[in-house]
Amino acid sequence: MSATTGVVRPRPSLAARLAGRAGGGVLRVFLVLVGLLWLTPTVGLLLSSLRSPADVADSGWWQVFTHPAQLTTQSYAELLGNDKIMGSLLTTALITVPATLLVVVFGALAGYAFAWLDFPGRDGWFMVVVGLLVVPVQVALVPVAKLFGLVGLFNTTPGVVLFHTAFGLPFAIFLLRGFFAEIPRELLEAARLDGAGELRLFTRVVLPLGGPAIASLAIFQFLWVWNDMLVALIFADNGHPPITIALQQEVRQFSNNIDVLAPGAFLSMVIPLAVFFAFQKQFVSGVMSGAVK
What we know:
This protein is globular. The chain is built from 15 helices and no strands. It has two domains: 14-72, no CATH class; 77-292, MetI-like (MetI-like fold). It is mainly α. The longest helix has 34 residues, at 83-116.
């Protein structure tokens, strides 16, 4: 008689049996349906932007499946000739790109310092950074507006960039410090033995290893700044507003101006999506690395 004879295996729980039966094809079909439902508003916006204002006012966007002749690129042609919308896209880029680069550069430097450099009050300063994570943006709007008014940065693009940089740095430092701290100490010590200084060690060893985390941070910061409306509404130049404010002004001035709103909204959404998909591989690697660590 074998040693395993008489061993009674516990009966799987109801949750385990349901999870086993839900796996495979049924679960995939469910996830596909959820994904399609999630994408429905985006598809509706795209199809609305490809219809004439008369068709949009007459029927729903799903009518294009039975009347494909309604599809036209006239709205996009007019949008590209709209100096206000094109200027707002440029303003948004002039805000988003510097705010993202500054947060990534200073966040990486500070994260490396908190992870591997010994200096007085390091742990205390890091707790201050962690505490800043819970400070809401709304609390700082009035005092920062007064400060910007005194130094001449109110209603300027640099003022918006500085505001986004300041509020993006705590999360950047917290994220990158945790990632850099997981780098093997032996690797850094070997580089120091080879004569590498701190700057060379940072640029040649730490940054390449931290590429996935830096890409994840850049994507988060880019999406947050590009889609921001509250900070831009208060601090941006009213004469050259970013795309979120420009579209809001179109709604306020022309409630039926769908030929500008629909393609403008879709275009403002496509650009951050393109950035995300361009760095998707690094983003997933960074998220998975953080989960494993």
